[in-house]
Amino acid sequence: MTEPSAKASKVVEADICIVGAGPAGLTLARQCIGWSNRVLLLEGGHDYWDLTAQSLRSSTVESEYYNRDALSVGRRRQFGGTANNWSHVTQPNFGGAYARALPAESVDFEHRSWQPDSGWPFDLRELMPYYDRVAQSWIGGPVDTRPSTWQSANRPPLPLRSGPLHTRMAQYGTSEAFLRRYRADIIASNNVDTQLDSTVVKLDADYFQTEIKLANVQRADGSRYQVRAKVFVLAGGTVENVQTLLNSAATQPGAPGNQHDNIGRYVTDHPEFLLGTIDPAHPELVDQIGLYDMHYVGDKLVSGLITFDEEFKRAERLLNVAAVLLPRPAGFGTPAERALRVLAMSGQRVRPSNLKHLGTVVTSPRDAAAVMHNRLVRRHSPNRDYPDGYVWHRGGWSRPGVDRSQLTVLEVHVATEQSPERSNQLLLTAQRDGVGRQHVKLRMHWSADDQTNLLRTMDALAAEVEGSRLGRFRPWIDFHGATRPINHGLHHPMGGARMHADPRLGVVDENCRVHGISNLYIAGSAVFPTGLGYANPTLTLLALSSRLADHLVAVLSRATLEPLS
Fold first, then answer.
1. Is the pTM of this model over 0.90?
2. Side by side, which strands form the sheet with 425-432?
3. Cβ(360)–Cβ(335) below 8 Å
4. Are 290 and 402 in contact, with CB atoms under 8 Å apart?
5. For residue 5, pLDDT beyond 60
6. Distance between the two ends of the chain, CA-based, in angstroms?
7. Secondary structure in 3-state letters for 143-193
8. Nearest to 168 by CA among 416, 539, 534
């Protein structure tokens, strides 16, 4: 692993050039270890946080539901990529920060007649062997979402009535796998070389613009070099992949690699937000949902979530949604809290509508007092969430000895699928970054049809919760008011280089090769044609990277490409 000097060769030779050392690129590079081929892994950052490198992630979001800088804060230009940003931890902490290792469901891969542009070129069964392969190396075991594997007498599943709502388990993988173990394996290899501080500015193709010949690389000090390879794989993350493609002549709109102007389009996310709350039917319920907290079973970190079975989703034409349950203090999610939030956002401005919210506060003094007390406690708490030191997304609230006496309400926190829409687009701006690339911006909206679909899901969830006698469900979601979901980071962008067998509808084929370019491939969630519902994209993009490695073995063994001169 090196940082090229100013006197480095002007052209570096390789068989495979992988651009980006995040989880996708590292998985691909690690699987190449021991091959007879020369592999070069390029990373724009260093193996430490660097301000200059991070400044190159500058981008903006135009959306009612995301902060303007949501794309920038959600990415990391550094060896290990966004694994450096993972924040899930719990106690005891066995190996740093974690991310969910959750596979997709079959329904996520299917074409749905009621959802235009949905569906993958293959079904879930195609990825199952790769899920298990990458899970073995990342989380140390096979994928297993069955509650029966992880439950215990002290952590049983919710007593849900016989119906479509059920529990599904999520496993977690640690960032340590990529930041240390994969790094050590790659450093020790004889055929994989890593170059840091090496940002690919653009790709150069042959005369006909149908084969990539060179990657143009620039370092922070302004020095440049080029990489010549038989195969190029962009693995820099959704935003960086699209940015590189749109800054390269062969993949600009109308060019052979982008004849139908699909690059940058059909971007999706899975927004996460408060859907509602449950007032438990009995106070003991908070102590009985430990299965849904992040916790260890042996040395494996897991947690439960609730979702509808796939047949129900198909029959009701529902987007894929799942919820986690989080204990909260009294007053959380009540109309009084909503009213106080609206009033706080109004500031000193007097509006007629404020009278209604003031009335809600006055008529609900107990809830209002609880909300104000919670805010005061959180303001003076190190983690600003629970006074006992447990932030909800870091887990640990179900551990023995944790005081849960003040946690009387359950938050229903959901992640939901977004439909792929051509107008949700990453595109270039006139502004340029420190290495001369045009910046990108994301235009992102949340369709009315998707919002209506989510409300139907909420109604079905409320019916199952109350029908199971768990408690009273209180809806919270508001798509257009002052308390609408606003995501501070867009951490899981998917699409932008979507997979489709037809180049009129996609950017890459079923093997992740760019249509119209013989030797250019994309690794990562940019190729997802449909968002994965509520599942974090990491496990799926790792599986696709492993599958791509198998494909490249076949491509190189057939020697279909010209040898290096």
1. yes
2. 59-62, 438-443, 425-432
3. yes
4. no
5. no
6. 25
7. CCCCHHHHCCCCCCCCCCCCCCEEEEEEEEEECHHHHHHHHHHHHHCCCEE
8. 534
Report strand pairing: 39-42 vs 11-19. Answer: parallel
Residues in a beta bridge with 205: 212
Q: Decide if 353 contacts 384 (C-beta within 8 A).
A: no
Name the helix (H) or strand (E) containing 311: helix 310-316
Q: Is 284 helix (H, G, I), strand (E, B) or coil?
A: helix
Which tokens in the block code for residue 260? 């139908």
Strands (E), 444-490: 471-475
Rounded Cα gap, residues 483 and 371, in angstroms: 15
2 Cβ neighbours under 8 A, 6+ residues apart: 193, 194, 195, 196
Beta bridge partners of 232: 17, 520
Biggest CA-to-CA distance, the chain: 81
Q: Which domains does the chain have, with CATH numbers?
A: 11-88+95-330+406-558 (3.50.50.60), 331-395 (no CATH)
For residue range 292-333, what is the model confidence (pLDDT) as tens digits? 999 999 989 999 999 999 999 999 999 999 999 999 988 887
User: Any bridge partners for residue 12, and if so which?
Assistant: 227
Q: Which residue has the tokens 């020095």?
A: 223
| Rounded (5°) CA angle 86-91-95 | 50
11-33 burial, b for 16+ CB within 10 Å, e for fewer? ebebbbbbbbbbbbbbbbbbbbe
Side-chain-side CA neighbours of residue 425 (13 Å)? 10
**Of the candidates 277, 262, 389, the residue with the CA atom closest to the CA atom of residue 333:** 277
Q: Which amino acid is at 22?
A: G
DSSP at 437: P
At residue 236, does pLDDT exceed 80?
yes
Q: What is the CA 161 to chain-centroid distance, rounded?
A: 32
Least confident residue range of 74-78, 177-181, 258-262: 74-78
CB 322 within 8 A of CB 330: no
Give dist(CA 248, CA 243) in Å, integer: 9
Q: Nearest CA to 281 among 395, 159, 153, 455?
A: 159
